[in-house]
Automatic annotation (TrEMBL), chains A, B:
Gene3D superfamilies hit by this protein: Tetracycline Repressor, domain 2
InterPro entries, sorted: Homeodomain-like_sf (IPR009057), HTH_TetR (IPR001647), Tet_transcr_reg_TetR-rel_C_sf (IPR036271)
DNA-binding region: 35-54
Protein name from the UniProt record: TetR/AcrR family transcriptional regulator
Keyword Transcription regulation: yes
Pfam families to which the protein is assigned, alphabetical: TetR_N
Organism: Microbacterium gilvum
Length: 196, 196
């Protein structure tokens, strides 16, 4: 009874299972200390079984895990501009308060990617540059509408916003009394005539 | 000729060599993927030779490397208060622009320490709490002298300052066009009546 359609669905389910396991193993060990073998054991299949679905091995698994995370966030930012875009950044931080494991994986990988030879390096370099540009554009639009405080440079405000968001995650995960959403909102509001 | 004094000096030199090697190996691999054996090979001695000087093994080596880093920074902050303290934070960032390897090791370890079971976890939790308190005290003193902008809460300003510094390091190491000293100074100045 399982025609091509059933086989396809089964493949998609197995891929999701493998990505769930990869996420769990990377979160626990960091990327460097993780192995395809451990990911396979977590799913309950062989290493060859994992490589059948992800022939690029550990590097491809990492990229797929990160892309799955970004898709959810990008849905929240789509078609937003100016203040709306900045408010959506805070909404993403609010969602992430409930996703400690994801934020932790992301934090460890972003730190490991500071090594220029790390396979996630291009992903993070491109990602930070892209987000910095998008946040700069949002502040520029706020300025065009007269909503930016005097003397605030959109690019520097974007760098401050992005660095605060990254730093707040690190402090939160290390036990400091911060609220990654409220404290991000406060930083952004510091650049605006009317707070968020 | 090598009396107790000479023997002591030799021990101190060997400890420094081992810490230099530990720093190099931790920087390259991160803590989790590093081994006492590799550190020993880098010095050109046996693993037993390393454990003779650091009987606590990898955990003790990590703590010693981090403490050595902090001593330099704390020298710059000693006896400073208020605006002077905040300006010294920027000076520390300026120094760190020339110490990419140290900042990278620190960034990776701080991220790994988000795992509550990591041996560096108590160090980072205590360190972030201590710095946040010291920066809060500095902003409180600035406020007492009338130098804080209206509506700025010293604690929240301290959290923003610390998160920005941490985040700027991460963005810098991942290739974004930030200046960890100038951008930190800009964040701090945003809370002050007169910029730094």
């Amino acid at each position: 009874m399982a025609g091509p359609r059933g086989a396809y669905r089964k493949t998609a389910e197995r891929r999701e299972q493998i990505l769930d396991a990869a996420f769990e193993v990377f979160s626990k060990n960091g990327y460097s200390a993780s192995s395809v073998n451990e990911i396979a054991r977590t799913v309950g299949i062989t290493q060859t079984g994992v490589l059948h679905h992800f022939s690029g091995g550990k590097t491809e698994l990492l990229r797929a895990v990160l892309e799955r995370r970004d898709q959810a966030a990008e849905g929240l930012l789509d078609h937003r501009t100016g203040r709306d875009f900045l408010a959506a950044l805070v909404d993403i931080s609010r969602t992430q308060r409930e996703q400690r494991g994801v934020v932790q994986l992301y934090t460890i990988l972003a730190a490991e990617a500071t090594d220029p030879g790390h396979p996630a390096r291009p992903y993070f370099t491109e990602r930070f540059a892209r987000i910095a540009d998008a946040v700069t554009a949002a502040y520029e639009q706020v300025r065009a509408e007269g909503g930016l405080r005097d003397g605030v440079d959109p690019r520097r405000a974007a760098v401050s916003t992005l660095s605060s968001v990254e730093g707040l995650q690190l402090l939160w995960l290390n036990g400091l009394d911060v609220d990654i959403a409220d404290d991000s909102a406060r930083v952004i509001s510091g650049f605006l005539v009317d707070p968020l």
